[in-house]
Amino acid sequence: MLHRGFKALGDPARLRILNLLMEAPLCVCELGQVLQLPQPLISRHLAYLKNAGLVQDHRRGMRVQYSISLDHQHQAGFDAFLRNALSSDLACCEDLRRCRQLEDEPGRRSKANAALVVPSIN
User: What is the CATH number of the domain that holds 72?
Assistant: First the structure.
């Protein structure tokens, strides 16, 4: 199972998705807006990450929210490794900035998702 997780990390778009999901659960449309990628492509990447056991999905009304999988047996070390590795990636930092802008737009996100905390990028 561990090899699937590392294989899933082999694509830059999947790394960017994980980077955002480590901050807060998001739906495909929110990921698409932040990553500026088409929704079908994001859905395929999410399916790949889900099959690798790295993300999970939850239905919230009409939307499906994706988050980091809590069942991953190496979660603490894996999470720390990814955060450290992605913190210096320019694309990931830009994604977090755009995610913060999305959060700041009035009426864009439901109150259930209002707890998104994105670290400031210098």
Answer: 1.10.10.10
Q: What is the pLDDT along the chain (122 residues), one digit of tens a residue?
A: 577 878 888 899 999 999 999 888 999 999 999 999 999 999 999 999 999 888 999 998 888 999 988 655 556 677 788 888 888 889 999 999 989 888 777 665 543 344 444 444 44
Residue 25 carries which DSSP code? -
Cβ–Cβ under 8 Å, residues 95 and 31: no
Question: What contacts 8, CB < 8 A, 6 or more positions away?
Answer: 14, 48, 49, 52, 54
The token pair at 55 is 């993300």
Q: Which DSSP symbol is given to 38?
A: -
> Strand, helix or coil at 2?
helix
With respect to residue 118, please indicate whether it lies within any of the assigned structural domains. Answer: no
